[in-house]
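Run log, item B.
One chain of 250 residues. Sequence copied directly from the ordering sheet:
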Amino acid sequence: MANAALDFKLADDEFAFYFDSNSGVDATELGRFLQRAAAVARGQGADLRVVGLRDGSLAVLLKAIKKSKIAKNAKKEFNKAPIATSAAGAALVGAVVSALIVATSCDKPTPMAKSAADVIEQTSVTQIQLVTVNQTVVIMDEEGARQVRALERQAERPKLLTGAADVARLPSPEMRQLSAHMEEGSLTGWLGRFNGELHFSPDGYRYSAPVDLRFANADDFPAGRYKVKGDLLLKAGRPDEFVILRAEPE
């Protein structure tokens, strides 16, 4: 594939997502995709900053900013999917980009891969490219989206149970409904501190669980009622943690 980096004029510590489309990208899906990318970058010890949108093309330019020491798995991820970089200062963006490539690979339905598939399926985008100063990689296309969905369906199939302990670990219909409402962004409840830790208590239930705010500061959310969107993590069939991607006051 021809390298599109010359059109973007990227710096060594920058990269871009290019969305191949004739009619634009849905803003909601784009925002969710960038949120997932930011989560992957944090795993490499970096924050992402949008530094440009190119007129005449659906390109989002980002800079990787060092937040902490690069995560221990950065070298491992880089070796899994190396991508060309051109300077010592590009080590961080190289680790971030490589982790993004791994996270959007079609061999497992990761949150990043599922979000990329959503962009393909729910908009007119035919492929998503990741561009650095030296290289362009297609990280998702229509065939890749179909593979991600097939893996999702496979993961959702009931597994063979071997005993009472396995049955106890299965989420109940109540938990599946709670998780579905949270994923679609329609779950409401009380968000506030409990013993100094941020908890969320969904409406209609008598319990609360700790909160992981992936894309916000806990101090930005005063106690009160919110409508939330995100993921529900279960332990022994019960809520263990609410991973909140968006919280809107009611």
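Observations after the first pass:
- The chain has two domains: 5-153, 165-249.
- The radius of gyration is 20 Å.
Flagged for discussion on Thursday.
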